[in-house]
Amino acid sequence: MNRWLHLKPRSPLLIGRLKADSAYLVTLPYIPGRVVRGAWAEGRRMAGKAATIAAAARQLQIWNFHPVREGMVYSLPFPRSAWTCKRHPGFRPHGHGVLDSCIPRWVYRLLEEQARLPFPFQIVCDICEDRMTPTDGYYGIDATGGRARISIPLQFQTKVALSRRRRAAMEGMLYQVTAIAPQEDLAFVGRVQGPPDLIREVEEALEQVGVGALTRRGYGQVQVCRGDPPAYLSLRERVERFNRIFRQIYADIARLAPGASPLPEGTWFFTIDLLAPGVFREDPLGPPALWPTLELGGRTLRPCFWITRPTLVGGWSTAWGLPKPVDLAASAGSVYGFRWDPEWGPLDFEALERLEETGVGERTDEGFGELMVCHPFHLEVEPI
Ligand SMILES: [Zn+2]
Q1: Which range of residues forms the domain containing residue 28?
Q2: Which residues are within 8 A (CB) of 170 and not within 5 positions of it... i.e. 6 or more apart?
Q3: Which phi and psi (to 5°) does residue 88 adopt?
Q4: How far is ligand 1, taken at its centre, from the CA of residue 96, in Å?
Q5: 93 C-alpha to center of ligand 1: Å?
Q6: Predicted TM-score of the model (pTM)
Q7: When comparing pLDDT for 6 and 22, which is higher?
Q8: What confidence tens digit (pLDDT) does each residue in 104-113 have?
Q9: For residue range 238-261, what is the model confidence (pLDDT) as tens digits?
Q10: Ligand 1 mean position, distance from CA 135 (Å)
Q11: Which of 13, 70, 332, 378 is a plausible cystine mate for 185, CB 3.0–4.6 Å?
């Protein structure tokens, strides 16, 4: 069973790890699946059922909870290919617009391999002609198609260290907390997969235990509501539109590139876009990688185009109550382009849908590797 939950903050939320040696605790802008899972495990522990956590956890998949404002039909992290004007950032009409560079960059790369391109790849603002730069964070869409960046309201508070989890030498030390401030129209939306009784347990634990750090000092209180799935275009429609725009831009640029061959008919191009960090390894015992490999239709696919950045991820084992090793990961918003050739048979859309259900890479049970196939923002090749 797949259930979408909305968590409405009713007190400040501090999402992230407590670091023993830092005087500053700054929240993450979203609630990772592993934090929600931690609240559920704490609820079981409080009910005296600690021994059952590991077995029950295997039936539960908790994805990440992303910020959304009331009235929005969905929200997503910007892909790393989203660019905005350096001088007047943001959506129009307030800013000079945001656009997506994935398809033009990928097309440019493809053409560059086979022809001499008489111009460099460059995107400038079409209003002020200043440079455009990558943008990050979240955006949402309302029912009329209007877009807005989602700003996370923050509040600052100075606290005195009391927790036993912090080193004794830190007792009484002052530290500064930057937390998410509760606001009436702010919620965090994510999906939980598992048997209905376990999902209900997650809902109850979230309201009883709270999420994140400092829950015993009043932080982390949330109200849990059930919601509809986000209203994205269907996966097939996203992939088809992505390919239509891809072919159109390819044809436009190829006209300016003497010697370029047309795109082969029947080839599909698609992206895997990370909604949360991804932990990848090509070989189970090998070093970490910054890109995923896909098993699709009996083939192993490697990305032929990517935009990514490394990050470090930690974690907490809910079963053992111990910290997990820190892994090198690809950051949220990473974009990976794949190509499917017609001689391999038809592109299996259902397999791509399953990929969205299961995520990609390692530690998906903690919410890592949550993904979308052909992020809808890639279709915005003109500034909006
Ligand atoms: Zn501009």
Answers
A1: 2-74+149-227
A2: 20, 161
A3: -130, 75
A4: 5
A5: 11
A6: 0.92
A7: 6
A8: 999 999 999 8
A9: 999 999 999 999 999 999 888 889
A10: 14
A11: 70
